[in-house]
Amino acid sequence: MSPTTTQSPTASPANFSDVKGWFWPADQLLFDWFLTRQAQVSHQRGDLLELGAYLGKSAIFIGGHVRPGEEFTVCDLFDSPAPDDPNSAEMNRSYATLTRRAFETNYLAFHERLPTIVQAPTSVIGGRLKAGSCRFIHVDASHLYEHVYGDIEAARTLAATDAIVALDDFRAEHCPGVAAAVWGAVATKELKLICITATKAYGTWGDAEPVRAELLDWLTSRTDLWHGVEEVAGAPLIRIGGKNAQAPTPPQPLHPTPPQPPHSAPPETPDAAAEPSPTVQSTGRNVFARVVGGRRRR
Q1: pLDDT of 208-235, one tens digit each?
Q2: How far apart are CA 164 and CA 36, in angstroms?
Q3: How many whole angstroms separate alpha carbon 136 and alpha carbon 27?
Q4: For the whole prediction, is pTM greater than 0.90?
Q5: What is the per-residue pLDDT across 36-48, written as a single tens digit (0 to 9) for each?
Q6: Is the four-CA dihedral 160, 166, 167, 171 of positive or negative sign?
């Protein structure tokens, strides 16, 4: 599907931190490390894919690593109806305000053009892209086991040689279906996990040893990331703690907001100075709420 732009409903974000989403500094560092490493490996070519986009925070980050001749595809339901009742309930519970226009507005604040957008259930992606074409795949759509299972199967088919797959929410207590699908792929689908953070697992269907060794060297040089290694399913697994992680330089907006001059109040007139200030009483309280629930099928 060719990139298209719909009417923007809101003002563009002024900076990366204005874009809402759950994309923590440790994972920003790892996305940057894996994608930068791929750019430095001459044979590591291929497209980029994200399954599930929410409001575009991780997509904006990934989009900064697209090289000439490569394509970045984002698959999400956005405003489309969910394909089944459980997924519809999941979407309505946590993503009722999600729109494609919001995603596009956010993305275009940082990039000249949109990625290729497939507005459909992620179950269609295997038929839209060429097998073995993607070097980096971010799976961050449904939390329902059968959907995540299908997304991992699609990622395996679409993965190029030594491609990296990042799998979100594989250890969250409210997402047991994701954990079951991820560890099932390790046990039966030849997925080799390289490392895990508090929220994501990173793996490959290729040769994990070279990238694991390079990652360990890089982690040793970082004072803001804790790491340890243990044997899991017959292979080393790097555990990474990012409590003190210092995020990499974020994507920069195309049109930064110019700094505003300091506000200066107009000089008071003698009459105005003599007037007593009115008393303002608070009549209410702002309440902020964050909905934390299942992830919609995107």
Answers
A1: 999 999 999 999 999 999 999 999 999 9
A2: 12
A3: 14
A4: no
A5: 999 998 678 899 9
A6: positive
d(CA 201, CA 128): 25
Side-chain half-sphere CA neighbours of 135 within 13 A: 21
- Report the DSSP beta bridge partners of residue 196: 201, 239
Using H for helix, E for strand and C for coil, what is the string for 181-205? Answer: HHHHHHHHCCCEEEEECCCEEEEEC
- Give the pair of three-digit tokens for residue 2: 């060719």
Q: So what's the pLDDT on residue 273?
A: 40
| CA-to-CA dists, residue 263 to 257, 259, 267, 268, angstroms | 17, 12, 12, 15
Cα atoms in the Cβ-side hemisphere of radius 13 Å centred on 298: 30
**Which residues lie below 8 Å from residue 70, measured CB to CB, with a gap of 6+?**
45, 46, 47, 48
Amino acid 11 reads A
CA–CA separation, 252 vs 243, rounded Å?
A: 24
Q: How big is the CA angle at 294 (ends 285 and 78), to the nearest 5 degrees?
A: 90
Q: How far is 198 from 188, CA to CA, in rounded Å?
A: 24
Two structure tokens written together for 98: 């999600």
